[in-house]
Amino acid sequence: LLYSGSFLLGLVIGSFLNVVIHRVPLRQSLVRPGSHCPHCAHSIRWYDNIPVLSWLILRGRCRDCGAQIGIRYPLVEVLTAALFTLGALAAGWELRLLLLWGFFAVLVVVTFIDIDHMLILNRVVIPAGALGLAASIALVPSRWWEYLISGCGAALFLFLIALLWPGGMGLGDVKLALLLGFVLGAKVIVAMFAAFLLGGVVGISLLAGGRRSRKDKIPFGPFLALGGIIGSLVGEQVLTWYMGFIG
Predict the structure, then answer these.
(1) Nearest to residue 224, comparing CAs of 146, 147, 170?
(2) What pLDDT is attached to residue 247?
(3) Would the CA dihedral through 140, 145, 148, 152 be positive or negative?
(4) CA dist., res. 90 & res. 85, Å (int)
């Protein structure tokens, strides 16, 4: 029940996240107008707005004008559903699951906005960081100092990189690191390591394949987000293994 419910909830939330990803960078309302085709502006009928299923039935096209509906829409829905299910596997029925769901939703939004616009928006990460810190402390009050130090430490680390490497790291990445630390605590170490490792592998691969040059910018937000997901799911186990290894 928990896992199937998490998956279905993730599909629904993912559908809403598509709206957030599209409208927030344009400073448009998330409520009005309702869901509509971006090509013909026709309102989308409720039965054409069922996550994934409607896209498959319509074969990725608008019912009214026949314009192509990008595959990203169902992909975001499935990705969110998968993350919600993984969160349920990690947290079970604990209240921490609600924090993970909110955390994952924000990371999905940040990832696709950064891919589209090379921006990590203050109006997304700052409120999320404040809520994430409050939720983390509410769940484990005795570790309030850990969340504060982890968030500030991760943000300071990226801020120093941004100073030393102008243009290579943006302040949006710094604020996203703050959010990661506030939610993950000490596990942010695993998240940051994973982000830089994955970012380095992908960057080198793109350069080697000729798909990017040294002058091209690659958004780092998606790698931080992926690192945050890894840290939240297996960060504790990785830290425990590492401490045992060096001990």
Answers:
(1) 170
(2) 65
(3) negative
(4) 9
